[in-house]
Structures are given as C-alpha cells and as structure tokens.
Specification:
By secondary structure, this protein is mainly alpha-helical. It is built from 9 helices and 2 strands. The two termini are about 15 Å apart.
C-alpha cells in the first residue's frame, strides 16, 4: 500500500478490475472511467490524496485494506462475512466514483518560502456537476452501468461510516444490518487516515 501515486497505478487498477469484475455492464463502466478524469483526479481538495492521481491511489489502497480485513478469520466467523472477490473489488474500487468530474483546478497566490516572492499556484476546488450526495451518488453512478446487490449498494452508500453527515442512528443501523458496509468503512478510514493522511 502506498501514499504516492505511481505510473503503474492505472495498470494495476485495470488489471484488478478486469480480473475480478465480470458482471454485465462492467466493460461499459470501465470505458466511462477511462474517458473521465477518474485516473487523474485527486481524492480530496486538501486532505487525503489531494494530488493528481490521488483518487486512483485511494481506490487501490481501499481495495488492499478491504481484502486484508475480509481475510481475517475472526472477521469471517464473527460477522459471517463471506464476500466474493467480485463484490470486494466493486465496493472498494468504485466506492468514490462520485468524485469523477467533481474537481477543477483554480489558481491562488502563495508565498515561495525560498525566494520570498508571491507566486500563482494551482489548487483543487469542488465543481460538482451532479449534486447527488456522496455514497448515494456513487451507487447511482455505478447502477447506471451494472446491477449492484443490496449489500454492495449499502456498503458503497455508507462507506463514510460515522464520519458522514447523516443521522448517526441511521448510519449505525446500516452498519449493523450490512457488515460489508462496516468493513468498507473501516478500509476507507484506514486508507484515508493512516496510509494517506493530510497533505
């Protein structure tokens, strides 16, 4: 697992995607991703993955965290989680598809610490062209190409866990009813806060 993007990230994503996700419509969704800014977009404007390719790197990190979490025998026994490889790939790789075509680059003045001069520097801003929420927007976008199981949809919808802005009772109930949603939220937090951190 890495914090910084590499030139192989896109290759790695496509390899995992094609090997693990074979559902009807998956090929069309991958075509959409390749025509979008998914492979170059940041994961956020100033927190984790706030750099070109950050969304791609974050998606791969979440996939690695989720597959490691699901492989734990204690997790499988306690929560009766028997998640197939396709489901794990779908929810991890596509949980943040809502960030496709979501950011734009603006310019601001910043003081160069070495020269003491003010310079114009680029930074990411939010330019949401489909204001449909976060997790629910990802579910909506994926569902436009391929069918999700209820557990997959719930996992993607609630992947923010308690860091989301929704009613905490609703989040708690969703995580209790759908253990995959809890697992994905743990993987997302591990990737966001421990592997990637603030920029």
């Amino acid at each position: 697992m890495r914090n910084e993007p590499t030139s192989n990230d896109k290759e790695e994503f496509i390899k995992i995607y094609k090997e693990k996700i074979t559902r009807d419509g998956a090929d069309k969704l991958l075509e959409f991703l390749e025509k979008s800014d998914f492979f170059t977009a940041p994961a956020s404007t100033r927190f984790h993955g706030a750099y070109e390719g950050g969304l791609l790197r974050h998606s791969l990190n979440v996939y690695e965290c989720l597959t490691e979490y699901l492989a734990r025998e204690r997790v499988q026994q306690k929560y009766e989680l028997n998640v197939n490889e396709e489901t794990a790939a779908i929810v991890a790789l596509l949980h943040d598809i809502c960030k496709v075509n979501f950011y734009s680059i603006s310019m601001r003045n910043s003081k160069n610490e070495q020269t003491g001069q003010w310079e114009k520097v680029p930074y990411y801003t939010i330019d949401d062209k489909l204001p449909y929420g976060h997790g629910e927007k990802s579910v909506y976008m994926v569902s436009g190409f391929m069918r999700l199981t209820r557990e997959e949809a719930m996992a993607i919808r609630w992947h923010m866990g308690f860091s989301g802005i929704e009613d905490k009772n609703t989040i708690g109930k969703a995580l209790e009813m759908y253990p995959l949603a809890f697992a994905l939220s743990v993987a997302d937090m591990e990737a966001s806060y421990f592997l990637e951190g603030s920029e």
